[in-house]
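Supplementary notes for students who missed Thursday's class. We covered one full example, reproduced here. Read the sequence, then the structure, then the short commentary at the end.
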Amino acid sequence: MIHKYSLADYQLTIGIPQSVAQKLSLRDEQGNLLTSFSIGGPGENGEGSFLGQIVASRTTNLWETEGDATGSWVHNKNLSRIGTIELQIRQIADEIIELAQLCDIYASIQENVEGLTLTINSSASDESTPMVTGVDCYIQKQADLTLAETAGLLSWTFTCGQVMFYQ
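Structure (token representation):
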């Protein structure tokens, strides 16, 4: 599980299926098809930003042990890798506004579409290292709208068909 209060050492990349990007006409500033979107990391000035946390978890135990009256036991391995990735961010920036817009657009699609791919990379060193990947992810809960004097906590939950840890 990743549980860190400053996301300056981590970058979240959201992979958008090409068919969805084409259907929604998602384009970057240069007019290219937008098939990925990243937030966090050290930033251009190396100082980092995006205070909050990312929590990736699986919904089931990997191993279970069953015993019986004779004192014997059996270990059962669960092959399910389904889980959730929760983003909690307490900062308003252009990237967060774009993330909120992307989530709103994706959640408004009325037909069945391919899921997103969420990848959390450690950018603490010169090389980006994958930490967690969520495959076939859908928005389970969108961020609440918070209007206040200071930046509120924005929290998105994604349900994932597979959560893979690379620690």
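Commentary. The beta strands are 10-15, 36-40, 52-58, 63-67, 73-77, 83-89, 116-122, 129-141, 154-165. Helices lie at 18-24, 94-108. If anything here is unclear, bring it to office hours.
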